[in-house]
Amino acid sequence: MVKLIAPKRATGMSLNMRNSTMTERAMATLNQTLRDPKFYLVGLDLRFCYLNFDDILKLANGIKINTTLVKLDLSSNALVQCYAKFLLEELIDNTCLADLRLANNLLDDEFAVDLALLLEQNQILHTVDLSNNPISEDGGKYLL
Q1: What is the DSSP string of 80-123?
Q2: pTM assigned to the model
Q3: Domains defined for the chain, CATH in brackets
């Protein structure tokens, strides 16, 4: 994975890791890349990677100070609210992520409440895909 990540360039780079097994080393490298200002990663696709709790923590930690990532796709990872909450907490002060894909996970009404609170504070994030999650009509009311 290290060789796939290139130093900063004018147009930025998207990284497709869809359906990959993310080892501890790979997640540590991704965390460092997200935190390093000399890399210009604008898109990250981690669909079907089935990230565990430690993976989400590393990802959230990297995103916290990242200033280039505009699109993040975590669809189809079997994410539950208690994992995703750590990611949302780091997005409160994020100034660049505009598109977050969380379709086909296990996110529920409690997550919808947490997301609504984030969206009140973060004016940059404008697209969130929550399709095919077990969010009820009651949870959806928080997002409207």
Answers
A1: BHHHHHHHHHHHTT-SS--EEE--SSB--HHHHHHHHHHHHH-S
A2: 0.92
A3: 2-143 (3.80.10.10)
